[in-house]
Amino acid sequence: MSFKTLRKMVQQVKPPLRGVVFDLDGTLTVQNLDFRAMHDRCGVPAGEDLLQAVAAMDGAQRHHAENVIEEMEEEGRRTLQLAQGAVELGKWLHWWNVPTAIVTRNTQATVQHLHEKLWCPYNLPKFWPSVAREFVPPKPHPAALEMIAWEWDVALGQGLLMVGDSPSNDIAFGKAAGVSTALVDADRRHFEEQTGADFVVQSLVELPRILWQHFDVNPSAEGPRRRPPIPISAACRAASSGDVPTLQHMELKDLEASDEFGNTPLIWAAESGSVAVVEMLLAAGVDANAKGYAGNSAISRASRHGHEPILRSLLAAKVGIKLDDPNDKLQSPLHFAAFYQHSQAVQLLLDAGASTISIDSKGRTPADFAGDSGHADDHACGIRDMILRVRETHLK
């Protein structure tokens, strides 16, 4: 083996993703603190480090400045909102069992508010460790990242990622500790700067795909390939073949029962394209959101095959259809419709409010799926543009 070949192989080796550390304000949450006003009210020039300047003050001046900061941060907690893509990224990292932490110059009270009001309600675990202003020395000194690596029992290095919105604070912080860095430049303020970041994104929703491409994200978690299912029970066979009369003589418990593959009759009807069976089962009161083989629901199967009449029936059902409920690989119905280039199905799902920023296990959004089908022709590009237009509309 030549040295050139060996070097190329080494370059292609991805570091394992050991954990992701986030900044808070302007990264995980929408920037809602007016730092210029905070500096002015505290009597600190804009170019100086606010916390260091306040710590160096004496007596009444320091007391006044600390009260100003607390007052503005309390108001900031009241209006705190998660940044676009934060929940989707959090769910993706949680699905892959990637540890997450926070390092912020805000207070522990703000971190607690984030957990209780904005993060944990999505069934996401708390960031741990959560390093707030009370920890000294503050970033960009690397001590906090060193402590986090010690708590996680991992080594500092490329396998850890620091994500933040400030080149001078967050990116410098990560570089000082020797970890990988990602800059969130939502407003493209740093577009023409040499930020030093390894990756630059406008939205957190872009990160999973980048992480999948540049890190080893535990691919063994996907598990072995399973054999394709076939309808086994009498109800499932009838649903798959469109046999409404047979189903009409069955009890509700049989109409809802899943077969050995986990599929219900409704899922089989959506798979085979039998509108009459779908409408009959919905009228009978079956669970429209039941999941079957590989975690797919009826709307996932209809979206995969582009069965538009079935999609309309499901979307019109009195019971609320879970539009974005993912399967075992975190693929949503819109992912399927986009990947298989069913433009009408994509439009139906978008009109119903399907999320354009849901993220699958490999970090792909539905728009990414439209271009990953293996034949990204004009039709695929049109579907991707359709999804992106809706995403941009929602961001305005």
UniProtKB/TrEMBL annotation:
It comes from the Eukaryota. InterPro entries: Ankyrin_rpt, Ankyrin_rpt-contain_sf, HAD-like_sf, HAD_sf. Transmembrane segments: none annotated. SMART domains: ANK. ANK repeats lie at residues 261-293, 329-361. Keywords: ANK repeat. PANTHER family: HALOACID DEHALOGENASE-LIKE HYDROLASE, SUPERFAMILY HYDROLASE, PUTATIVE (AFU_ORTHOLOGUE AFUA_4G13290)-RELATED. This is Uncharacterized protein.
